[in-house]
Specification:
Oligomer: single chain
CATH class of the largest domain: Alpha Beta
Distance between the termini: 25 Å
Radius of gyration: 26 Å
Number of domains: 2
Structural class: alpha/beta
Helix content: 25-40%
Low-confidence stretches: none
Mean pLDDT: 97
Number of helices: 17
Largest sheet: 10 strands, mixed
Shape: elongated
Bound molecules: ligand NAX, adenosine-5'-diphosphate, potassium ion
Number of strands: 17
CATH superfamily of the largest domain: YjeF N-terminal domain
Strand content: 5-15%
């Protein structure tokens, strides 16, 4: 699924109106209906529920007016509060006129905003994608009044005051919603950690925007969801053998962090690799052999950390980083790997920290290497970001410059490709915020890179999706707090199966 900018969303609305021969008010009605349908499922029975709809002067306010009418028709106790304005959009006027006379409507004056009861459900329809500057004056005061009320707020399209796809000054007035319900496609702002306190949980509801426009519009940002990835993992052929799926090498572990090597190895095997060899410091040899018997193990001469690069010829992909620490002779192993590897590489954790501390090594990165930094590791590779949008630009620039695939990990992990596209992963949950989840990802990505049937892009996208999806499946058994990284590998197979090409004509 593509992510559209606010401007492209307006074009998509216009294309839909043109192609379907409907009026913009009809599209607004569709949007309001979709919103109300979503809301009704989550509200208490109609007669017990007070709903306050706060409407701004544009089409977001128009959506709010239409939603107020539809909720009123369903028997909810609805009131409408209007933000005072000199001018309103045409479809706002249409929907203002359609409000039934018995539905209470008041213009909210700044000197005496009515109190908002915490029991009220507030629909925030003040501003949407048409916001052109940060809120000030009455609009900002109303947002502050609403936030102070601590009511349950559901924002239409975006929390009012938040730019849909651009940064804004720190401290701007923005509604703090419990839920944000967007139309058709999420806006970039909903995916960024800095906006979490405003967005709450988000959902999108379909409104039938022009499929032709959505297919043709050029995009540089995508949501990597099931629709994008379904069927991308080829099914296994009847006569497949272990050579079909590649032989991977993992370079992982150091004294006190052998577990990272175990987790990566388990995930690599569950990711479907044909053969796996793990190079660990001598201290990890017995541990690895007993916990992951399916993997071959190459013990390093050094007891505590990696000091030797194995002969690379047998391997279809190499993953390095989980738990390796940052000793100077491990840095030398990384340097030799970068200089000599012919197979695709996956670099994580301390391999990234070593790159950050020895930036000249970055120029040795083979094209199409996969790097998986979390934000702190990414900062060590680049520079501190001023905000999330800046971080995304740094990410895009880094991936382009080094011709690499770079995954900025977090909720909605973002992959930047060598040609500057961004893909936001849609799976995963906060259960993964536990030590070792990243090691599991390294192992899984190394397995998928060893599978020659997959392109580099598909390997990363499938790996990110399946990693998060494994956690989504696992939490049904473990709960969120109870999940540990070691639980994830055994759900990877099920997650991968969901993306496998169906066995049909
Ligand atoms: N027919 C359509 O085009 C559809 C539009 N939709 C809704 O339309 C919304 C976009 O509507 P609009 O483009 O009218 O934009 P908004 O409703 O977001 O607001 C635009 C109005 O606010 C004013 N404004 C912008 N920034 C301001 C600020 N900082 N302080 C005070 N006033 C400010 C603008 O001058 C304009 O009058 C979407 O978010 C969505 O909710 C949906 O109904 C789907 C269909
Ligand atoms: N709140 C969250 N929602 C979804 N995924 C998450 C969340 N928190 C962490 N993750 C995922 O878990 C992994 C954590 O990796 P990392 O930070 O390297 O941890 P570690 O070094 O402990 O293995 C990443 O893939 C990240 O995307
Ligand atoms: K809004």
């Amino acid at each position: 699924m593509k992510l559209l900018t606010a401007a492209q969303t307006r074009e998509a609305d216009a294309a839909t109106i043109r192609e379907e021969g409907i009026s913009s008010a009809e599209l607004m009605e569709r949007a309001a209906f979709a919103f109300v349908t979503w809301l009704q499922v989550r509200l208490s029975p109609a007669a017990d529920t007070q709903v306050l709809v706060l409407c701004g002067p544009g089409n977001n306010g128009g959506d709010g007016l239409a939603a107020a009418r539809l909720l009123h028709q369903q028997g909810y106790l609805v009131q409408v509060g209007l933000l005072p304005a000199d001018r309103h959009s045409a479809d706002w006027e249409v929907n203002r006129a359609r409000l039934p006379a018995e539905l209470p409507v008041a213009e909210w004056q700044p000197e005496h905003f009515p109190a908002i009861s915490p029991n009220t459900v507030v629909v925030d329809a003040l501003f949407g994608t048409g916001l052109s500057r940060p809120l000030e004056g009455t609009a900002a005061a109303l947002v502050q009044h609403l936030n102070a009320a601590q009511a349950r707020v559901v924002s239409i399209d975006v929390p009012s005051g938040l730019f849909a796809d651009a940064p804004q000054p720190v401290g701007s007035a923005v509604v703090k919603a419990r839920y944000t319900v967007g139309f058709e496609l999420p806006k970039l702002a909903l995916l960024l950690p800095q906006n979490a306190e405003f967005v709450g949980r988000w959902h999108v509801v379909p409104i039938g925007l022009s499929p032709r426009y959505l297919a043709d519009v050029p995009a540089s940002m995508y949501l990597a969801d099931a629709a994008l990835l379904a069927g991308r993992l080829p099914a296994r052929a009847t006569f497949a053998h272990k050579g079909t799926f590649g032989h991977a090498l993992l370079l992982a572990g150091s004294r006190g962090k052998v577990g990272a090597a175990v987790l990566a190895a388990q995930a690599c095997l569950r990711g479907g690799v044909g053969l796996l060899t793990v190079s660990v410091p001598a201290v990890g040899y017995a541990v690895l052999q007993s916990t992951v018997p399916e993997a071959m193990c190459l013990p390093d001469d050094c007891k505590t950390h990696l000091t030797n690069l194995p002969e690379l010829r047998p391997y279809a992909a190499v993953g390095m980083g989980p738990g390796i620490d940052q000793a100077d002779d491990t840095r030398a192993v990384l340097e030799e790997l970068l200089c000599t590897a012919k197979a695709p590489l996956v670099l994580d954790a301390d391999a990234l920290n070593l790159l950050g501390a020895n930036r000249s090594l970055l120029d040795l990165l083979p094209p199409s290497t996969i790097l998986t930094p979390h934000p702190k590791e990414f900062e060590r590779l680049t520079e501190p970001a001023q905000h999330d949008y800046h971080r995304l630009e740094l990410l895009r620039g880094f991936a382009r410059h080094y011709r690499c695939y770079v995954v900025l990990k977090g909720a909605y992990s973002c992959l930047a490709t060598p040609d500057g596209q961004l893909y936001f992963n849609t799976t995963g949950n906060p259960s993964m915020a536990t030590g070792g989840s990243g090691d599991v990802l390294t192992g899984l990505l190394t397995a998928l890179r060893a599978d020659k049937r997959l392109s580099a892009l598909d390997a990363v996208l499938i790996g990110l999706y399946a990693h998060g999806r494994a956690a989504d499946i696992a939490v049904a058994d473990t709960g969120q707090a109870g999940l540990v990284a070691g639980d994830l590998p055994r759900y990877i197979g099920q997650a991968l199966q969901e993306l496998t090409t169906p066995d049909s004509l």
